[in-house]
Design brief:
- The protein is of the alpha/beta class.
- It folds into four domains: 175 residues, 3-Layer(aba) Sandwich (Rossmann fold), CATH 3.40.50.300; 67 residues, Helicase, Ruva Protein, domain 3, CATH 1.10.8.60; 116 residues, Up-down Bundle (Zinc Finger, Delta Prime, domain 3); 124 residues, no CATH class.
- The chain has 25 helices and 18 strands.
- The chain has a five-stranded parallel sheet, with helices on one face. Strands 6-8-7 form a three-stranded mixed sheet. A three-stranded antiparallel sheet has the order 12-10-14, with no helix packed on it.
- Helix 9 packs parallel to helix 11 and helix 12 runs antiparallel to helix 13.
- The chain is extended and about 105 Å long.
- It starts with 5 loop residues before the first helix and ends in a 14-residue tail after the last helix.
Length: 665
């Protein structure tokens, strides 16, 4: 008899022989025992995991002539010795028709199938159709099969095997029982390969078995095919083939994971030359850049899983030796580092598919791993900036962040960097309080006047600014971390016996040309119910925030309005009608006012926004007396309105006529 490959020779003939699909085999055995046989089945999953094999075993169990419960067939498993089982195993059964749907995918073939399904079985109990690669059947052919599949004759059963169940129309899937197959686990493939190696008189070590199972990638058939090829190339010693991991790796054209471990150790040591030399050795040995990148991706994935879930986790489908190797690398790098490495290598692997100079792109992708080690996450930067003790007196705490690759690297000099010194006056109108009271943060947001849309009331300081290092330096103990700006704020000593007067603070900002807002924070004590910021400061800063957020009209109206404290409530009087106020003061604008009010004052007091013009029907005698004057000044008032002035500057327009809508409101 001609030689038979291992994948066919050791093909399961019973449900109990199938490995890794217990959820499917047990369900089918129960259905056979209860005689709950469906007229349509869909078996979907990875390649080489037993979809068509289980379809044949199910057909054998349905057609088996041996009665269940007898000594020859005590369970619903097929007996395997009757004529029906023998013919189905050999592929010569008349009533079990196996069709390759990849080639018989048209509507004409499906019409022939429908015609044949009308006739009763020639000998067996059922007429069974097994459609392999069923997802390749055309939509028209599926539509032709739809009615027959929904209400088939009692003697017809359809079984469809596919690797892409999503390509099968939902109307077909809803009429069948769908079984989703799992990829075979690593240790199950290893055990099956060990059993087959013993049956074939092959000597194989654990490293070679692990390499074969890993190459199978969840497919038992793929692992057996590679093993068959490895046995053919293995040396024959004392009448037995000897499989070695080195020979198998050379046969598959793969690279040892020890190489990738050495490369990542070079990455950790910031030794780009050593890493590229090891990659060059593998390339010169004939390994393709795509193969190296693919294996690097797999190795990084295993290292990340070892970092996240531990080396003993089921997420790692590798041998014990590879688990230990992944654990060593996971202990060296952080979760963020491994995630960045994996993401970068995935992009490199994708690029190699359509690049001409694949070697150069692989070397560039590997070199990026070294550069990524020099990146400092924002979280770590902020943690370093906020971990130092607070400053005292006029001194300051200097926090310097350097690269992990070279602690002596200085901050790069900015070609367009410049210094600006501004003097900011903050009005504090609250009385002094006891030191034991809770600190109330006074926050102010200041930006340079280089950006008109974000400029606030700032004046140049008389003293020239001195250039500061790139690391942030801040006197106030509760200040926010600002990077990469340099910020110095010196607050005058506060007296506990008298209310603080208007304080002066000098802020030195060093940054690029772009206007970047910086923030300072002061501690202030006040009795409950008192405001820490005057209304005019709130008016300027909140209006500017609304303009920066794109609400120019609302910001202009709010800046021109009247802001005053009414007890613990801030009252904003807008000189516009209720109709206009409702249009510009949207929910988003309201959220901006609330957020900035809470940010500046550190409290959540009420903010009341009112229209400065009377409502309909509420005109009194005083308003009636003012009406003629307002009517007389109707043409002059728009020229002074800030919104009109803004529109004139923006559109280079002029006011030609004024129409008052007050009476028609």
């Amino acid at each position: 008899m001609a030689y038979q490959v291992l994948a066919r020779k050791y093909r399961p003939q019973r449900f109990s022989d199938v490995i890794g699909q217990d959820h499917v085999t047990q369900t089918l055995l129960n259905a056979l025992a209860q005689e709950r046989i469906a007229h349509g089945y869909i078996f979907s999953g990875h390649r080489g995991i037993g979809k068509t094999t289980i379809a044949r075993i199910l057909a054998m169990a349905l057609e088996c002539r041996t009665k269940q419960g007898t000594a020859e067939r005590p369970t619903p498993e097929p007996c395997g010795v009757c004529d029906a089982c023998t013919e189905i195993r050999a592929g010569s059964a008349m009533d079990v028709i196996e069709i390759d749907a990849a080639t018989n995918r048209g509507i004409d073939e499906i019409r022939e199938l429908r015609e044949g399904a009308r006739y009763s079985p020639a000998r067996d109990r059922y007429k069974i159709y097994i459609l392999d690669e069923a997802h390749q059947i055309t939509d028209a052919a599926f539509n032709a099969l739809l009615k027959t599949l929904e209400e088939p004759p009692a003697h017809v059963i359809f079984m469809m095997a596919t690797t892409q169940p999503e390509d099968i129309p939902q109307t077909i899937r809803s009429r069948c029982q769908h079984f989703s197959f799992h990829a075979v686990r690593f240790h199950e493939i290893v055990e099956q390969l060990r059993s087959i190696a013993g049956s074939e008189s092959v000597d194989v070590d654990e490293a070679a078995l692990s390499l074969l199972a890993e190459a199978g990638d969840g497919s038992m058939r793929d692992a057996l095919s590679i093993m068959d090829q490895a046995i053919a190339s293995a040396p024959l010693i004392d009448g037995r083939h000897v499989l070695e991991a080195v020979r198998i790796r050379s046969l598959m054209g793969s690279v040892s994971n020890q190489i990738f471990e050495n490369m990542l150790e070079a990455v950790h040591a910031h030794n780009a030359a050593s890493m590229l030399e090891q990659a060059a050795q593998q390339l010169d040995a004939g390994n393709s850049p795509q193969q190296i990148a693919r294996q690097m991706v797999r190795f990084l994935r295993n290292c990340l899983m070892a970092r996240l879930a531990g080396a003993k986790s089921e997420l790692l489908q590798v041998s014990d030796e590879e688990r230990a190797r992944a654990e060593r690398i996971a202990a060296v790098f952080s979760e963020e580092d491994l995630t960045r490495f994996l993401n970068s290598m995935l992009r490199t692997f994708d690029d190699l598919g359509y690049r001409q100079e694949q070697r150069f792109h692989l070397e560039l992708g590997l070199l990026k791993l070294v550069h990524m080690q020099r990146l400092l996450p924002f979280e770590e930067l902020f943690r370093q900036l906020s971990s130092g003790p607070g400053a005292s007196g006029a001194g300051s705490q200097r926090l310097t962040t350097t690269s992990k690759a070279s602690p002596q690297i200085a901050a790069p000099k900015k070609e367009f960097a410049r210094e600006e010194s501004v003097r900011v006056d903050v009005s504090s109108s609250y009385p002094a309080a006891n030191k034991t009271q809770d600190a109330h943060p006074l926050k102010g947001m200041f930006t340079r006047s280089t950006n008109p849309a974000q400029a606030l009331s700032t004046q140049p300081a008389p003293a020239p600014a001195t250039k500061q290092p790139a690391a942030p330096t801040l006197d106030t103990p509760h200040s926010k971390s600002i990077a990469p700006n340099t910020l110095q704020a010196t607050a005058p000593p506060r007296s506990d016996s008298a209310p603080p007067a208007i304080s002066e603070q000098t802020i030195v900002v060093q940054d690029s040309v772009a206007a970047i807002p910086v923030a300072i924070a002061m501690e202030a004590t006040m009795p409950p119910g008192e405001s820490a910021v005057d209304a005019d400061t709130l008016r300027i800063e909140i209006s500017a925030a609304m303009v920066r957020s794109g609400h120019e009209t609302a910001g202009t109206l709010f800046e021109a309005g009247t802001w005053e404290w009414n007890g613990s409530e801030l009252r904003i009087l807008i000189g516009a009608s209720k109709t206009l106020l409702a249009l510009v003061y949207t929910a988003q604008a309201q959220q901006i006012v609330r957020d900035n009010f809470r940010k500046i004052t550190g409290s959540s007091r009420a903010v009341r926004v009112e229209s400065g013009e009377p409502a309909v029907g509420n005109t009194n005698k005083a308003q009636a007396e003012l009406a003629p004057k307002e009517q007389a000044d109707a043409n002059a008032r728009p020229q002074d309105h800030p919104l009109i002035r803004h529109a004139q500057e923006l559109f280079h327009a002029e006011v030609r006529s004024v129409v008052s809508l007050r009476d028609s409101r």
